[in-house]
Amino acid sequence: MRQSWWKILGLVMVAASIVVGFLGPVPALFLLHETIRNVYFHVPMWSAMFALYLISVIYSIRYLSRSRVNDDLMAVEAVNTGIVFCIIGLLTGMQWANITWGDFWPNDPKTNGSAIATLMYLAYLVLRNALEEEQKRAKISAIYNIFAFPIMIVLMYIMPKMTDSLHPGSGGNGTFGDLDMDNQMRPVFYTATIGWILIGVWICTLRYRVRLLENKRNLID
To answer: What is the model's pTM?
Structure first.
């Protein structure tokens, strides 16, 4: 029970944010209207993805310094889990963009940067599958992963701030916190963000444990 408290906390936080996200009050905003509720779902997906990718980078660095197979396995499973949150983030963003801006995929630097970053991490998984020798695969993919993370930050956060963008917080636009979220929304938003990060880490650890069992079975066979 002591080791599971954060999992229970994550479930409670996500469940509460979903209920309040759909049923709770939101400010009456021009253009956004009820779609502002998507901030409870779209943004936390990206937050969970970033957290998982960061975990992956940390374990890639650990693998290069210690050459432990388990570190490589945790790194790849963090990416595998992060990709799921990435796809959900893209889908919720596309729906929101279509309602707010009239296009599922507007020509926006942050949107395009997100697509490139997604392809970059999918390429990481393809690279791993293309290399058969275990140590070579782990080392090359770890190096790739370490360089991919800062590039993703540049594509999704730095470049959009340097040019015109439809997204809040980019291209001189104010952030959601400055313009749209009131004091009733902020607690729900932060609850959703922390909750989804905890759920993402939980899923990652489950995938990691399954991968360990598969490795042990392969060694026995």
So the answer is: 0.89
CB of 57 within 8 A of CB of 145? Answer: yes
Could you report the per-residue pLDDT of 83-93, keeping only the tens digit for each?
999 999 999 99
Q: Which domains does the chain have, with CATH numbers?
A: 5-220 (1.20.120)
> Is the separation of the CB atoms in 14 and 40 below 8 Å?
no
Taking a C-beta distance cutoff of 8 angstroms, is the pair 153, 102 a contact?
no
Burial class (CB in 10 A: 0-12, 13-18, 19+), 22: exposed
User: What's the CA gap between 160 and 170, in Å, rounded?
Assistant: 5
Confidence at residue 150, expressed as pLDDT on a 0 to 100 scale: 95
Compute the Cα dihedral for 158, 159, 163, 169 and give only its sign: negative
Cβ neighbour number for residue 27 with a 10 Å cutoff: 12
